[in-house]
Write a structure and sequence with these properties.
Distance between the termini: 25 Å
Number of strands: 19
Oligomer: single chain
Number of helices: 2
Order of helices and strands: EEHEEEEEHEEEEEEEEEEEE
Radius of gyration: 20 Å
Amino acid sequence: MSFDLKNQTPKTTLPSTGVIFGADSASATSPSTYTKNAIIQIQSVDTIADLRNTPVSTGFNVDLGGYYANGDGGGGQFYGVTGAAPGTYVDNGGTTIVPTGGNGSSAWIRIYSSAINIRWFGANGVASIGASVASVDDTAAIQAACDVGSNAVYIPQGWFVVKNAITLTSVDSGYVFGEGRASVVLLADQKAQFIVDGPNVTIRDLTFVTRLATANTVMASTDPAKNAVIYVEERKADWEFDNIFMFNYVGLLSTGIKSFNSTCGLVKNCSVVDPELYCL
């Protein structure tokens, strides 16, 4: 399995306003299917809240500036789908956006072909490893990105705060990668961890750092048997962890990587600095 690590832009590059002549127009059935030589009307909005307040139309695409603000990494291009049965579309916060008050019969669908960026779902992180994490929690955004299940999940450069367990289940969403030491997951609660609960899961090029509220506190899963930064559930096969670095900043790691009765796993180029119990 391989992915373009650098091409994190949508399939088409659209201007913020105006009309494109002779361009590709997204189909209502797939963001990767296009109708050639269409005329695309473009409407620009600043934030995901603005997008939710924009009535869905098949007559124009929307250029989103960012999730919370222009240029924050959560932007992209969307096309509209309408006329489905109520409940067909469910807002997942990043790739499918149902308008405020909508019944799921219409939605804005993100156009993309590369990996899913957690910033599309509102992961914002903190400015530095030592910044306050008290009011920040990117857990739900990262989990939502992993739950899409259609592409790999990209954790970009930054310090992202996790305060609960993130579960990886499906084959595609189980491929999570970043930029090595520049992509940092701050474990800001004792329950924070990644749980592998499906086959063919790969995690690579990421850094995990304890960022608890109290020094000398040991990471502790809600299930003591699963105490680890990365835990592989029983009888899960064909997992791979590559180029992962874990260390203590505030608080103590219990175990770096833990697997119970699983098969065909590969760990390579991984470092766990000063765990309380075990590295692996």
